[in-house]
Amino acid sequence: MTSSNTDRLLDKILEPIVEKDHLISQARLAFTDYLASYVMALNEPVIREYGQAYHRDQSPVQPIQTDYQLTPEEAALFYGFAAHYLDIDDVHPHVQGHPSAVIFSALLATVESHDRWDDFFESYVIGLEVEGLLGQVMNPHLKTTGWHATSVLGVIAAATAIGCFKQYPRQKLNRLLSIAATESMGMAFQFGSDIKPLHAGLAAKQAVFTHELVSRTQISANTDPFSKEGGWFAALLDKPVELDFNNWLAPGQILEPGLWFKRHPFCSAAMTGHDAAELIVQQGGKMADLEEVIIHFSPNQDRALRYSEIKTPMEGKFSIEYVVWQVLTYGKIQSHLFEGETVPAAYHKDLQRIKRRYDLPAQPPTGRKVTITAQRKNGSQLTATVDIPKGAPQNPLSLQDIIGKINNAHLEVWITNLYSQPLSTNGLVKSAIMR
Question: Does residue 434 surpass a pLDDT of 70?
Fold first, then answer.
């Protein structure tokens, strides 16, 4: 009798990782990027409001770089909300979302004094492996039907990571994943609002809640949540699914296709367009001198870039026009233009000269090729094509690039020296430079 998707998934999760050094090294890099993204958002008003609203003296978890005391569930939400708030955290092509903001947030909220760094990172690797596997099946369907993959897939990935971290036996892990699967949520209509990054926090929170529920009670759950013809896949995809485990940790989702690390606080779907605009500037192109700018995509490639005529700067994070306009106008991204309440009047004036065109050949789900053609007022034309943007695994950011995003010398030193400290909530907090 053929084993079910769920049985085979549990088998794989419980298998020891044989060759782990490179996987753990990449997980450390991902955690460094996660921390950089997280600390950059701590002074955002809505993040501070959340911490202050839920702070209670004697609560067991003190999030890194804060004075707040929160419950594990509240801390998981705080971590995820902050880590994803600026949209400068990592992305994964198979997930088509932000895995670290959810998985690391859930793990940090459950760290205990005896836990070790290697176990922390191995658990992350397995959580990401599950998330990438499910993402290969579910995408681009999630994106085209209006779901936010970061939270839909993230709650299952984070629950998996916690189960590994806490060394769950098989039956308990089965219940954990079944309950997590029924908590998948998050819709893309929230892109451009505070609720989009909140999705990451909610997914982490639900993973922690599920861990506590399964640990404290004998609550039952369906034992085959990933049934080939029913369960989670039937609810979201409405077709039979046979999971393929042939590439499980060979070499691993964290290595292939790998994580994308971001330089700027906007949607990763705009990264290639941004880099192409930089090439136009290097050729002498400036918005004031251009008659028309055309951004060439493959069909449906820009699904996450929902806005052209933006109403708020935050919506601009999901507008290729706004990203390209900034580069062509100022020579580089102006991060402050994604903040506040007012969109520059010059953008609305220039928008009529910036257009999208869907005339590139179809690409694989991980493809991001973009071409920009810019017609000058003097009649000449500039063209730039980017296949692999800076920050992709094939064109990676360095460790110093990632740490340097913080733009705070004291915090950069702290992150650089972090792994010499013990892995515990208290150890991390005490090693930090408190605000």
Answer: no
* Domain containing residue 419: CATH number: 1.10.4100.10
Contact between 48 and 78 under an 8 Å Cβ cutoff? The reply is no
Contacts of 222 (CB under 8 A, 6+ apart): 178, 231
Cα(405)–Cα(395) distance, rounded to whole angstroms?
17
Domain end among 367, 386, 405: 386
| CA pair distance 46, 414, nearest whole angstrom | 25
User: Could you tell me if 185 and 237 lie in one domain?
Assistant: yes
User: Are residue 161 and residue 276 in the same domain, yes or no?
Assistant: no
Mind listing the pLDDT tens digit for each residue in 30-43?
999 999 999 999 99
Mean pLDDT throughout 78-106?
A: 97
Give the pLDDT score at 411: 77
In this prediction the pTM is 0.94
The residues that bridge with 177 in the sheet, in sequence order, are none
d(CA 425, CA 68): 13
The strand pairing partners of 275, in sequence order, are none
pLDDT digits (tens, 9 = 90+) for 171-185: 999 999 999 999 999
Q: Residues 303, 359: one domain? A: yes
DSSP letter, residue 257: I
Q: How far is the C-alpha of 407 from the C-alpha of 395, rounded, in Å?
A: 22
Same domain, 306 and 422: no
Structural domain harbouring 272: 268-386
Compute the distance between CA of residue 329 and CA of residue 323 in angstroms, rounded to an integer: 10
The answer to whether the beta carbons of residues 391 and 85 sit under 8 Å apart is no
Do 102 and 144 sit in the same domain of this protein?
A: yes
Phi (first) and psi of residue 384, to 5 degrees: -145, 135
Domain count, the chain: 2
In a domain, 391, yes or no: no
Q: Are 272 and 251 within one domain?
A: no
pLDDT at residue 419, as a whole number:
76
Which tens digits make up the pLDDT trace of 298-355?
998 998 999 999 999 999 999 999 999 999 999 999 999 999 999 999 999 999 999 9
CATH number at 349 reads 3.30.1330.120
* C-alpha of 61 from chain center: 23
Token pair in block for residue 380: 């000449």
* 203 shares a domain with 313: no
What's the confidence (pLDDT) of residue 431? 43
Helical segments of 285-416, H only: 320-330, 345-350, 399-404, 409-416
